[in-house]
Amino acid sequence: MGAKSIDSHILKDSKLIKDSSYLDSINHIESKTPQNSVFDEPATPKNTIDNTIESADDFSIDFNEYSMLTPINTQVINRFNEETISAFSIPTEYIATLEKEERLIAFDTRKWQYLSRKFDNGYEFIPILRKMLFDADIPQEFLFLAMAESEFDARALSVKKAAGIWQFMPATARELGLKINDYIDERADPIKSTAAAIRYLQYLYNATGKWYLAAMAYNCGLGRLNRAIKEAGSDNVEVLLDEEAQYLPLETRDYLRKIISMSLAFSNAHELKQMDKEYMLNRGAADSIVVVSVKSGNSLKNIAKGANMSVDSLKNYNRHFKYDFVPLGSGDYQVYLPYEKLSYFKQHFKDVVEVTSLQATYIVKKGDTLSSIARKNNTSVDKLKSLNKLKSNNLSINQKLLIPLKPINIITKNKYAKSKTATKKK
């Protein structure tokens, strides 16, 4: 699972994507040279990733007091649109087939109970995620792509090292402008990772012309999807998901069905009302978060105190921080809070950083010495011995050492980001 790097060329002439089927377009593919980047495919300016959506960093604007209470078009936000099928460009006949084969979610099963609990896992961020999808003209049903990927667990980590709600691999995440370093992993940042996912989904849609193809490519990779379409001789959803032909991996076939099934289930007003879960239809109408700026290096304990909430609760909103403080560096840093805490935070938060108190934990590995550990962490042997109350230089494997941290400038190169001054989101 997770976003895959694109590994074959897409069509240079983007007109074919609109004027004929995606199958016609990929038949023009000549080169199958592996690509090193999710964006390396040649494309016209209309199809380039920078022209589909702004970079992930553009979503890290000063959101102060930005919340789901901001006036928006509520036609789609307040309800899961009943036109789920048309959003994915899927024939209604195919849905009828799924229902006949009992592949849709039944409401009287343990599976539904399990999925409804997982849907509740994302209650803090579902509102803003839905609004971001809406603003980017991406079908709301793609919220369930995130649920299929991670069950809304921002800390989800696959055996292949894909992480976060949208399950990005490290290389893909960095290509999309997300930061991964000693202090932070923005794949676990629900808002910034969603901005990156939007960017990637827009790219896949521009490459394929259909949302269900974009969803498939998100799971198995655009190159793998291209090969499946060429082998099948069609980009029709029923053909591609054929169980006997197996044009696509089983994981991908089940993946799209799961997204469709969850979309239909969570937009079924009649059934949800019967089960006293009508609130799920309105998830996003009232819940909200805000983003506040604090000095880099601020402890989560200090921020939590200023917001009158527990550290654990604050961590729940900021799962991308690796330590109990915001990343070290120059300038301010953004932290997520529940909207109802904003007023208290403004009155009581003291933006004070005690850099000397910042420490990291290091686990001793085979071959480590105090000298080598000190060099790696820009400190001295004497400071390490003093901080850890060591009487000698002897170490043992798996021994835990406290490491004093110093402010550093954290710079992440993003060749796809646009340089411009960010403004407050309207």
Brief synopsis:
With 426 residues, the protein is mainly alpha-helical.
CATH class type of the largest domain: Mainly Alpha
CATH-defined topology of the largest domain: Lysozyme
Radius of gyration: 24 Å
- Beta-strand portion reads 5-15%
User: Which residues sit in consecutive blocks of at least 5 with pLDDT less than 50?
Assistant: 5-20, 28-82, 408-426
CATH architecture descriptor text of the largest domain: Orthogonal Bundle
The backbone outline, from C-alpha atoms, is: globular
Structural class: mainly alpha
Number of helices: 21
Could you estimate the helical fraction of the residues in percent?
25-40%
Largest sheet, in brief, is: 2 strands, antiparallel
Order of helices and strands: HHHHHHHHHHHHHHHHEHHEHEHHE
Mean pLDDT across residues? 73
Q: Any idea how many domains?
A: 3
Distance between the termini: 34 Å
The tally of beta strands, per DSSP, is: 4
| Oligomeric organization of the protein chains | single chain
Main-sheet strand order equals: 1-2
